[in-house]
């Protein structure tokens, strides 16, 4: 099978000067495996119409390359019967690689596909990834968005501990050969945006003087992002809220807004991955087709979380689904819980689950404290009122329960949703709120 794909790649390369991209490869592989366009579209998160159009274009190129009519129906048979003959006819069909390269990288002269040079790697303060489970779909989506679709800005959002940093670093390991510079920075170690921009400019031009104005810093960085293909991960971004900001907060917000808008909208060949535990209107989201921004909200792990429990040698595997559900599939929460179950119950999950409510262990408490402290006072009040309710609740039921006026209430709930503290779900045409069991127990334990 791999041989057939290699041959198709070379044929396409000879005709167009471009290697197969991710979608073309998926169409060919899907065709070889007997899948329909609809199925291939589903697997690649593309529209069926787009997959069909890409398929038609691909068959045309292959037909021209082979000098005979190729279609989805006969592709497998034709290439299977021909590839050895073609291989012996054409010395150039040896030593091929399938590399999903960007569609707009038009080099009309076919060139040998050498291994890219090692990128300049600068992963200051990046945590080491010891284990990595699941997240296959998320990795595929991000790989496609960055390598093939050339998103200039990618956001990875989600509650603390859900696995944003781990996923981003795993992705970096996977796609770094496509870049000349690969940089990771946690904004936790920098006083503000200007300090991080100065640090980044220093990497590209160690001897240059760093300008004072943030607009000039952004503009100089964009120059570097145009000259080289860079991947920059900015982790732990915290931007002041979206309400009426005054004084220093409004300047901080405005600087971030300017920076992210420039990264998304000014032409360059690089990608910034922005990681944050809350959505901010200062960071653009993918609002229209072809807008070079990809946003991913990370949810808990499902089956893959079992590996975390297995690693801690927990018992009663038949009850693990319940435990994972109780802790919302949050890998950090599950790590803490697995350790405690091992220490207190000798690993017997079933015995622990007889208590039915999640326990907010000491390290978990500390982690939640840090996130809770970022909430505004009305948000903290709303959370403690929500903690005592029976779930799920509709807007109207919740409004009754809290002491907010409707406009205040909607603002507070929207903000809590943007911080991933509450989930808003649609059920049978009714909007419902869910505060997950761990946060409910945490809020109750604060007793405010
Ligand atoms: N896919 C994963 N497989 C295994 N462990 C994971 C995975 N994602 C996260 N973890 C673990 O969960 C913890 C929190 O992950 P992290 O990436 O730091 O979360 P976040 O950046 O969202 O706060 C880490 O200790 C990490 O080892
Ligand atoms: Mg993190």
Tell me what the structure shows:
It is a single chain. A hairpin with a 2-residue loop joins strand 8 and strand 9. The strands form 2 sheets. A 6-stranded parallel β-sheet has the order 1-3-4-5-2-6, sandwiched between helices. The chain is built from 19 helices and 9 strands. By secondary structure, the chain is of the alpha/beta class. Helix 8 packs parallel to helix 9. It has 4 domains: 92 residues, no CATH class; 178 residues, 3-Layer(aba) Sandwich (Rossmann fold); 54 residues, no CATH class; 79 residues, Orthogonal Bundle (Arc Repressor Mutant, subunit A), CATH 1.10.10.10. The longest helix has 19 residues. 33% of the residues are buried. Bound molecules: adenosine-5'-diphosphate and magnesium ion. The site of magnesium ion has 3 residues, from helix 7.
Please sum up the structure shown.
A hairpin with a 2-residue loop joins strand 8 (423-427) and strand 9. This protein has a six-stranded parallel sheet, sandwiched between helices. A three-stranded antiparallel sheet has the order 7-9-8.
Poorly predicted residue ranges: 86-115
Q: Hey, roughly how much beta strand do the residues contain?
A: 5-15%
CATH architecture annotation of the largest domain: 3-Layer(aba) Sandwich
Instruction: Name the helicity range.
Output: 40-55%
From the structure above, extract its key features.
448 residues, alpha/beta, 19 helices, 50% helix, binds adenosine-5'-diphosphate, binds magnesium ion
Topology summary:
Layout: H1 2-16, H2 22-32, H3 37-44, H4 48-66, H5 75-89, E1 120-122, H6 136-148, E2 153-157, H7 164-175, E3 181-186, H8 193-204, H9 214-227, E4 230-237, H10 247-265, E5 271-276, E6 293-297, H11 305-311, H12 320-326, H13 331-345, H14 349-353, H15 362-372, H16 377-387, E7 393-394, H17 395-401, H18 406-418, E8 423-427, E9 430-434, H19 437-446
Parallel strand pairs: 1-3, 2-5, 2-6, 3-4, 4-5
Antiparallel strand pairs: 7-9, 8-9
Helix pairs in contact: 1-4, 1-5, 2-3, 2-4, 3-4, 6-7, 8-9, 9-10, 16-19
Magnesium ion binds next to helix 7.
